[in-house]
Specification:
Blueprint (H helix, E strand, L loop, with lengths): L1 H23 L4 H19 L10 H27 L12 H13 L5 H17 L10 H8 L1 H25 L3 H22 L5 H4 L2 H25 L4 H8 L2 H13 L4 H21 L1
Helix pairs in contact: 1-2, 1-10, 1-11, 1-12, 2-3, 2-8, 2-10, 3-7, 3-8, 4-7, 4-13, 5-13, 8-10, 11-13, 12-13
């Protein structure tokens, strides 16, 4: 059951990215972030009364308090990444999160890495090379240089680094509460804060957002975002977090397929192969880390 739920989580996550980019990719990152957050907020609020409230201690509150601003920043940067560059050159770099977590996990949770995790890192690097393999005609190191030239890729690497901190904090908060409570309560607050900030600063004009056309598109991405979160916390509550996250990284593969379908992105075969290899490496890091 958790395997099916994890794969569906990956598909839902990639779907949010693809359709948000398709509908709103011509706008700025804050506008892109506004739609899935604003239109999913009522769904999270409606779910909150049905979620049991566990006993909450000081550890939960400081982890939760740190996670909210970190995730608000990372979500806007995430939108900026997929706005700037093709999905097939951005989403695969989310697989770097467990690599960075080797350091943050050790610092916060005293979790040490293993040789399997190191092997996974090597595999991820190989996969990242394949994403830009066609540029190897200009030199063997050119695929790696291409990563540095792609602004969206660099931004997503930054997001992966931020996620390595927020994931560890979130895991600690879940250990001191429950997966479902943390998931719903967290996204109620995160969505509310970002939507309110966007409106108060003038970055989002409600009269433009709630036209019939924009509202229908917003309802779709909002529902997908809500589904992504619910599937995530449901799946992660049924198995070890490392196993679930490993399968969720299939969102990178689904993202490449979406890129080919919706945006006619180039070199799909190379990027699909690279993303599959990076997901495999991330799985080794997550399980062996």
């Amino acid at each position: 059951m958790w395997v099916a739920l994890s794969v569906l989580t990956a598909l839902a996550a990639a779907s949010v990215d693809a359709w948000t980019k398709k509908f709103f990719g011509h706008r700025d990152a804050v506008t892109m972030a506004f739609y899935p957050l604003c239109f999913s907020l009522p769904l999270f609020l409606a779910s909150l009364p049905f979620v049991p409230v566990p006993t909450l201690d000081t550890t939960f509150w400081w982890c939760f308090g740190l996670s909210v601003p970190i995730n608000c920043l990372s979500f806007v940067l995430y939108m900026e990444s997929i706005r700037l560059s093709p999905l097939s050159l951005t989403l695969p770099f989310l697989t770097l999160t467990p690599v960075f977590m080797l350091a943050t996990g050790y610092a916060v949770l005293q979790e040490a890495a293993s040789w399997i995790a190191v092997l996974g890192i090597v595999i991820i690097v190989c996969g990242g090379y394949l994403l830009n393999a066609p540029s190897a005609q200009a030199g063997l190191l050119e695929p790696l240089r291409s990563i540095a030239k792609e602004k969206g890729s660099l931004t997503m690497i930054t997001v992966a680094l931020i996620y390595s901190f927020s994931a560890v904090l979130g895991k600690k908060a879940i250990l001191h509460s429950s997966p479902m409570f943390f998931g719903v309560f967290f996204f109620v607050l995160q969505n509310f804060l970002l939507v309110t900030w966007a409106i108060l600063t003038g970055r989002a004009q409600p009269r433009h957002f709630f036209t019939v056309s924009n509202a229908s598109k917003g309802l779709l991405v909002g529902a997908l975002y809500y589904l992504h979160v619910v599937l995530h916390v449901w799946a992660i509550s049924m198995t070890q977090a490392a196993y679930m996250i490993s399968l969720k990284r299939l969102s990178a593969v689904f993202g490449v397929l979406y890129g080919a379908w919706l945006f006619r992105e180039e070199h799909v075969s190379w990027r699909l192969a690279g993303s599959v290899i990076m997901v495999a490496g991330a799985a080794l890091v997550a399980v062996g880390g």
